[in-house]
Amino acid sequence: MAGYEAGFRDLTAEVRDRDLPVEGTVPAWLDGSLYRNGPARWTVGDAEADHWFDGLAHLTTFRFDDGAVRYTNRFPRTEAYRAAVEDGSFAGQFSSTDGYLSRVKSLLDGDATDNANVHVARIGGELVALTETPNWLRIDPETLESKGTLDYADELTAHHVTAHLRRDPESGAHWGYFTKFGRRNVYVLFRIPEGTTRRERVGSVRVEKPAYMHSFALTPEHAVLVEPPLVTRPAKFLLPGAGGFIDNYDWEPDRGTRFLIFRRDSGELVRETTVPAFFTFHTANAFERERDGTTELVVDLVAYDDDSAVTDLSMGALRGGNSGFPSGELRRYRLPLDGEEATHEQLADEVEMPRFSPEVHTREYEHAFAQSTEMDGGNALVRVDVSEEGSERGIARRWEEPGVYSGEPIFVPHPDGGAEADGVVLSLCLDAEAERSLLVVLDGDLTELARAPLPHAVPFGFHGEYFPDG
Ligand code: CO
């Protein structure tokens, strides 16, 4: 059986407004667009990106209209794209061997890569492609072409930024954090009010050795940074020949993993608590509640024992079939604010890319959706039932097909839905044997409703969002 190496093969084809054949029935209420982002090309001539995360940004969109699905894909013509295609250079990115100049330039001079290949959001009324530098791209929602980098209506200096913004369901503001390196290193929590491109500084904390952090958690009153002990000493950036961005980080498990809890209204760091070391890319949902007379924050996330989830993803290893997908444990951390110890429990094993209904963000919830990596020769999608009220917790529903590698499951609630699972799950999957991708539409119980084959194989990507029309 063809393996997952097909998901790391370069894509070069681009199509525009292609009507996809649909098998089954896409619900007619689905009236909007799914946008997805991810790296899709690692080789240009003799030049090759070293790390999966360094491939050229590639956007896809699927427009749903009365049961039909229309597909467009595009490599935005960024500076990074031009440098790769014209100069054969993949410099200045997540992990590269290009060394000293590109690294110092990219991190400290604010001239970082514009290869925005991680996520998408709607900021200031525009579709934006996000990455972990401040160079986010304004994207034409029809053609997926870049309209240049986003201009921030503020004066903040940021070096390493989360690409996982959290949208506050009450105000519509996007929340995030960045790291600013310098003589004094700080994590800065910020919010972008709806309709603006203005990052407002909410709170900050100084750190001696900044960590590599990928996402965070938001509750109604608090924001939680999860700081694994994958840390750097920024002076190391100035040492010649020290490698790419992530190569400058060391795993120091004795430090443990620290939760930094900020109040959202005052920006005050109200509690920090350290637990035995784990690494994480992705938080799922988070919420807060009163327990035994104190406020307890609940943060669900995918945890790994160590940093190999980052270091095992070199293109050489992935293309050679020597390495697998990272596969973590969905955990629930309980963080009491009164100083009691943090505790955790396992909700599911061998999962990644956790998502949930946007309608339950920051609230106690019932269902998380995730990719499951436990099967050989394919990736399943699973629904993890997380409610503490329910009798059945853990993996409750599953969709899988041999030879099919599913992508991140994006849940779209039914506009007039009642139950939390009333909606559809959209996932861009790779049919490894047929060497082409499939957009799969499942219901909230992970029963397949429809699939739409693409004219080509889209390599494994990262994240996306669905935006309803109007
Ligand atoms: Co991510």
Structure description:
By secondary structure, the protein is mainly beta. It has one domain. The chain contains four helices and 35 strands. The strands form eight sheets. Strands 23-24-25-26-27-28-29 form a seven-stranded antiparallel β-sheet, with no helix packed on it. A hairpin with a 6-residue loop joins strand 9 and strand 10. The chain starts with 17 loop residues before the first strand and ends with a strand. Cobalt (II) ion binds next to strand 23.
Please supply descriptive tags for the structure shown above.
binds cobalt (II) ion, mainly beta, 470 residues, six-stranded antiparallel beta sheet, seven-stranded antiparallel beta sheet
List the helices and strands and how they pair.
Layout: E1 18-19, E2 23-24, E3 32-39, E4 43-44, E5 47-48, E6 57-65, E7 68-74, H1 79-87, H2 100-108, E8 119-123, E9 126-130, E10 137-139, E11 146-149, E12 160-161, E13 166-167, E14 174-180, E15 185-192, E16 200-207, E17 216-218, E18 222-227, E19 230-231, E20 250-251, E21 257-263, E22 269-275, E23 279-291, E24 294-304, H3 308-311, H4 315-319, E25 328-336, E26 343-355, E27 367-372, E28 380-385, E29 394-399, E30 404-405, E31 410-413, E32 423-431, E33 436-443, E34 448-453, E35 464-468
Counting helices, strands and paired strands, the structural category is mainly beta
The set of bound ligands, ions and cofactors reads: cobalt (II) ion
The first-to-last residue Cα distance is: 44 Å
Query: Biggest sheet, strands in spatial order?
Result: 23-24-25-26-27-28-29
Largest sheet: 7 strands, antiparallel
Into which percentage range does the β-strand content fall? 35-45%
Mean pLDDT, to the nearest integer, reads: 90
Spatial extent as radius of gyration: 21 Å
Name the helicity range. Answer: under 10%
Which regions are unreliable across 5 or more consecutive residues at pLDDT < 50? Answer: 96-105
User: What's the β-strand tally?
Assistant: 35
How many helical elements?
4
Assign an overall shape: globular
Overall number of structural domains: 1
